[in-house]
Amino acid sequence: SSGINAEYGIVGRVASRIAHGKFELDGKEYQLSLNNNNDTHLHGGFVGLSKVVWDCEIVGNTLQFSHTQPDGTDGYPGNLEVVVTVSIRTKSSGGRVKGTFLSLDMRATCDQATPINLTFHPYFNMDGQDSGSALDNKLTVFDYAGYLPMDPDTILPTGEIVSTRGTPFNLDISRIGDLIVDVPGGYDHTFHLCSKSGFVGPAAEIASCDEKYRVRVLTDQPGIHVYSGNFLDGTRGKGGAVYEKHSGIALEAQNFPNAVNVPSFPCCILREGEEYKKNITFSFCF
Fold this sequence. Notes:
By secondary structure, the protein is mainly β. The protein has one helix at 176-179, and strands at residues 10-11, 17-19, 22-25, 28-31, 40-42, 55-59, 62-69, 80-93, 96-110, 114-115, 119-120, 123-124, 138-141, 144-147, 150-151, 156-157, 174-175, 188-193, 201-207, 214-219, 223-227, 235-236, 242-243, 249-254, 269-270, 276-285. The protein is built from 1 helix and 26 strands. The two termini are 28 Å apart.
């Protein structure tokens, strides 16, 4: 791609934003790179996991990506070893394929305590490739306890988790364009999922305007971040298509933004000797 305001693929070491790029861990303050408006650390920084070349090999019926992020990269402590295993399976009925599942099993270890928040950052427009705005798509968020309001200036959570009732965040097979007009700047918000820890359950679903084509996101992450492509600025993609603002909707299963600085948010610290394990699965139905 040629755009500078689009993020793709596996994102980390910490996806989303960290306020002022700072956090304290075990009595030591760390300063990360400030790659967003010179005041915020975004999606792992200048050399985040989405910006490096991964090793890749076929392991059985899976594709395995691996990468070692050295100690000190963008200010993070510890040598982080990441392995993402990708698998595909289909669901059939009466001899016909009814659905396809793309699963990403994400695992990591580190030789020092470090924050971590991995996600996969695809954009969807269920009305088809090069079809323009995705605001005609319909979006549902499942089984959530509320959403995280954002400070409009910093795009960081205020620390609250509030009900969506009576708000444009009550997404239930909703045409995105009908609600986004009441969301200044567009959707860039995390929903707190109610799924039990370690259980991979439905988080969100996006459908074409006629509801014929659907993608459902399943995960064991504590949140699903909905981003309406507010900063897409002419990125060129497949076939030379130009992706302008709102051309795609990102559904990012992840921990809460700035969790490393908000004690009430789910812990994002991985310690030496522990293993980070999360799963994101996409179910494609046509």
